[in-house]
């Protein structure tokens, strides 16, 4: 019996292996297709919560651009000896308040740099980030339009709607002159200050343990303070009237630039911040390890968030390292 059945076993086993391998290939193909969709987070494009969060980002960005640009203009129009100090303090308070207001709904990004950083460390999906950034840029344009509607034409011309202002028009002995800083100097300031901004404050908000330890108000107050300090430092070291300080927010530069038709300023902002947005993630510290791009960093299933991916509500303990 053994001799008669043994050849059958020898013949059937290779056939089984071939069928098994064929089945595995088909399953892998199906799995790969679904995994790509999950990695991109395409299902979130049909989520009402994501669009609700994007509306909060739009409104927050619009208010941010209107408020900060108004602060820039009013600080330099006010006859004070240290307008940059007043401007930095007011910007710190404004940023902290807006982050606290939008955090329960969208996570309190209101900045494409923060949103991209969240993607790079796997906190949100690429699809959600695209919706957020589109909303932030749209809100910035609306905020600039609102500012344009309330200021007179001379202020608009002098301060370029208070966006990422590199130069202003000032009275001179022989008529109006343009004063400010060079574009190369402004680009380097954006690169360095955006890196410091990410390294010093954002990762505290992304780390749920630190965030819960010190509290939401303290975290966003620190973020606002860091932004204000960098604005004050950048305007102080240049010592040139006409420069409004680092923006560290491409959307804030984009809005007034589109309304004014000046693409150079926001292009510099985008280049500088995108560069150090990538560099900043190299210093993320998670469980005694540094990882620029964790395994599955674009995978939407690693988004351990509540309240639509609030940095203060995320659980990073299960992130792959």
TrEMBL record:
Question: Which terms are listed as keywords in the entry?
Answer: Membrane, Transmembrane, Transmembrane helix, Transport
Quote a single Gene Ontology cellular component term: membrane
Q: Report the family membership.
A: Belongs to the MIP/aquaporin (TC 1.A.8) family.
What SUPFAM superfamilies does the database record attribute to this sequence?
Aquaporin-like (SSF81338)
Q: What is the organism of origin for this protein?
A: Prunus dulcis
**Keyword Membrane assigned:** yes
Check the record and name the Pfam families matching this protein: MIP (PF00230)
Where does the record place it?
Membrane
GO molecular function, a single term: channel activity
* Chief localization: membrane
InterPro entries, from UniProt?
Answer: Aquaporin-like, MIP
What protein name does the entry list?
Plasma membrane intrinsic protein 1A
Task: Provide the membrane topology annotation.
Answer: Multi-pass membrane protein
Q: Taxonomically, which superkingdom?
A: Eukaryota
Q: Does the keyword 4Fe-4S apply?
A: no
From the record, give the transmembrane residue ranges: 55-76, 82-101, 186-206, 213-233
